[in-house]
Write a structure and sequence with these properties.
The protein is of the alpha/beta class. The protein has helices spanning about 15-30, 35-50, 55-60, 85-90, 90-100, 105-115, 130-135, 150-160, 170-185, 205-225; strands spanning about 5-10, 30-35, 65-70, 75-80, 80-85, 125, 140-145, 195-200. The protein has one domain: P-loop containing nucleotide triphosphate hydrolases (Rossmann fold, 3-Layer(aba) Sandwich). The strands form two sheets. Strands 2-6-1-7-8 form a five-stranded parallel sheet. The protein has a three-stranded antiparallel sheet with strand order 3-4-5. The longest helix has 20 residues, at about 205-225. The N and C termini lie close together (about 10 Å). The chain binds 2'-deoxycytidine-5'-monophosphate. 2'-deoxycytidine-5'-monophosphate (DC) binds near residues 36, 98 and 178. 2'-deoxycytidine-5'-monophosphate (DC) binds near residues 35, 40, 94, 127 and 129.
Length: about 230
């Protein structure tokens, strides 16, 4: 009977996984791990070093150290010890991350690190393969979804807030392309674990979603203790 559990949150890009995962981790006093940021850090390394060939990406893995640090209470991803949090949140890096995440060796490299982070439980991890590959025995698995148009609008608003001038149709196309790649790749495609609970947040406010997820978390803890 564990005191702490592992919460695996998977789902499509831009459906608010990280916001909800962060909030749940804070509520539970757990560690939050954004695995997408880890794929993005590797993508950034390949962009910075002009590495396009998959074999060259694999050969570079021993030179790449991905980690996390806390800045003003927020989690920032580091690449070889340097805080790259703001550099990884661009469309270019997101697209490259979607490509490098298709490479089996890249996935094995990061999955091993992610599994270690769960040794002591008390973790909320979000990504695409957390409930299926990284922690198939996670006590609570959530699969978040939202309509592509809703997700595109959210990403559009986020880019505008950052001072970028995106085109909505481009953003929507990007969301659809990424969904296709994430669900059709050969290695650990995004899919719902059989025992995952689906939460469609297209028409939920952030507060409503949070309430729902905290209720699921508390129900799971009570259930495991009884
Ligand atoms: O969640 P995100 O947009 O930051 O993820 C960036 C890319 O990384 C996304 O296209 C899919 C990939 N990814 C993955 O393959 N497996 C994960 N566990 C997390 C992200």
């Amino acid at each position: 009977m564990p005191d702490k559990i592992i919460v695996a949150i998977d789902g499509y890009s831009s459906c608010g996984k990280s916001t909800i995962a962060k909030a749940l981790a804070q509520y539970a006093g757990y560690t939050y791990v954004d695995t997408g940021a880890m794929y993005r850090a590797i993508a950034l390394y390949t962009l910075k070093n002009s590495i396009t060939d998959n074999d060259a990406v694999i050969a570079a893995l021993p030179d790449i150290q991905v980690g996390f640090t806390r800045i003003d209470g927020a989690q920032h991803v580091t690449l070889n010890g340097v805080d790259v949090e703001s550099q990884i949140r661009t469309l270019e890096v997101g697209n490259r991350a979607s490509q490098v995440s298709q490479i089996r060796e890249v996935r094995e490299f990061l999955v091993a690190q992610q599994q270690k982070m769960g040794d002591d439980k008390g973790i909320v991890m979000d990504g695409r393969d957390i409930g299926t590959v990284v922690f198939p025995k996670a006590e609570l698995k959530l699969f978040l979804t939202a309509l592509p148009e809703v997700r595109a609008q959210r990403r559009f608003d986020e880019l505008v807030r950052k001072g970028e001038q995106p085109d909505y149709e481009d953003v929507l196309k990007d969301v659809n392309d990424r969904d296709y790649r994430d669900t059709h790749r050969a290695e650990s495609p995004l899919r719902q674990a059989e025992d995952a609970i689906v939460v469609d947040n297209s028409h939920l406010t952030p507060d409503e979603q949070m309430e729902k997820i905290i209720a699921l978390f508390n129900a799971k803890i009570i259930n495991l203790k009884s």
